[in-house]
Design goal:
The protein is built from 12 helices and 15 strands. The protein has 382 residues and is α/β, with parallel strands linked by helices. It folds into 2 domains: 255 residues, TIM Barrel (Alpha-Beta Barrel); 100 residues, Sulfite Reductase Hemoprotein, domain 1.
Length: 382
């Protein structure tokens, strides 16, 4: 049920990806990178579950030092997620096999340099060290110029951000790269990847639904995207992003394999009626940037607390760090992004304050009740 893919084949060291190669599975360590023993255990769990690639986040020079120690003790293919610290690429390159950068974060740094110059520097690092590259576009962190240029066409903005960066990399003569376009909404993920593939059918695609959340909802959201895309021959590597206890991180690979096997064998599952019409809770899958492990427990508590509001068409976002949290809660009706000691509460893009982990659930319920009451009043006949 998966048509032949038309993308070119690239290499991540000895691993072929795209084109005729098998669809590759990957996941990301959810521990703090500087906790070397815990991160190594995550890598081992993910690798034991059958991952082809394991991603690790690096945000500081201390993380780079830890990464070097991790590299010395594992033979796993490692990808590094640079996010807002793209200048660390030179330091991490000797210890990894693939770099991921986010086009939406480059404008924050070295504003005297053009985006093209920054990408050229990253490509040069990859070329000198024999690394593959991922251009990772995220709907929650789009560069302002694309938002301005495309207005209400958010999908178009994402697609053209990815396509423009492909053109830069192509012009530099670099071949071994993939593209991902992700969001927490599987419908947007499907639309964006289809539109991108129409523009660049040659470029291998990394598929995933960000902040899919807790099982089983997170698995359903991911299945929706994977079924719609893989059945069109789109998708060369997969990541399932679930909010899980750290010891269970290998389950992301198990679920990815189950979904892939179902689709390959025509076992499609119908989407439940009105799946997106009620309460939607999105939560990030956690990574080394999470500064308090209470985040996962908090996400579970939010889900339990809000069951009484299940029939209301609202979105609550629970994010684990300051890198993605502020921007990726903007589109939610209510958003929580977690710091080491406090949880920041938002109503849309409006900041409502920061509260302790003990206080936040009560404060969230107050805001949720107010929001439901306001909507009920607005819909009542005069």
């Amino acid at each position: 049920m998966i048509p032949p893919r038309r993308t070119r084949t690239i290499r991540i060291r000895s691993l072929e990806l795209g084109g005729h190669a098998p669809i590759r599975l990957q996941s990301m360590a959810a521990t703090r990178t500087q906790d070397v023993e815990a991160t190594l255990r995550q890598v081992q769990l993910i690798q034991a579950a059958g991952a082809d690639l394991v991603r690790i986040a690096v945000d500081s020079k201390a993380d780079v030092e830890a990464l070097a120690r991790i590299r010395a003790r594992t033979d796993a293919l490692l990808s590094v997620d640079l996010q807002e610290n793209y200048r660390l690429a030179e330091l991490v390159a000797p210890h990894v096999d693939k770099l991921r950068y986010n086009p939406g974060h480059l404008h924050h740094h070295e504003k005297d340099k053009s985006t093209r110059d920054k990408v050229a520097w990253l490509v040069d690092v990859c070329a000198r060290h024999g690394l593959a590259l991922r251009i990772g576009v995220n709907a929650g962190s789009l560069a302002p110029e694309y938002e301005q240029r495309h207005g209400d066409d958010h999908v178009g903005a994402l697609v053209h951000s990815a396509a423009d960066h492909c053109e830069i990399v192509d012009a530099l003569g670099f071949h071994d790269y993939v593209v991902s376009i992700k969001d927490s909404d599987p419908k947007l993920v499907v639309d964006a990847n289809i539109r991108f593939a129409q523009l660049r059918p040659d470029v291998p695609l990394h598929l995933g639904v960000t902040e899919a959340g807790l099982p089983p909802d997170g698995i359903i959201k991911t299945r929706i995207a994977f079924e719609q895309l893989l059945s069109r021959g789109l998708g060369d590597t997969l990541r399932v992003s679930l909010t899980l206890p750290f010891e269970d991180k290998g389950r992301e690979i198990t679920v990815a394999r189950e979904l892939l096997d179902d689709i390959e064998n025509g076992r499609f599952r119908s989407v439940p009626p009105n799946f997106f019409d009620g309460l939607n809770i999105i939560a990030c899958p956690s990574c080394s940037r999470v500064e308090n492990e209470k985040f996962i427990e908090l996400a579970q508590d939010v889900k339990a607390l809000t069951t009484y509001a299940a029939a209301h068409k609202l979105t609550i976002a629970v994010m684990g760090c300051r890198v993605n949290g502020p921007g990726e809660t903007d589109d939610a009706d209510l958003g929580l992004w977690c710091g080491p000691n406090l949880v920041n509460l938002k109503r849309g893009s409006e900041e409502l304050g920061a509260y302790s982990y003990d206080e936040i659930l009560g404060r969230l319920k107050d805001e949720l009740d107010r929001l439901i009451a306001r909507r009920a009043a607005a819909s009542s006949p005069v």
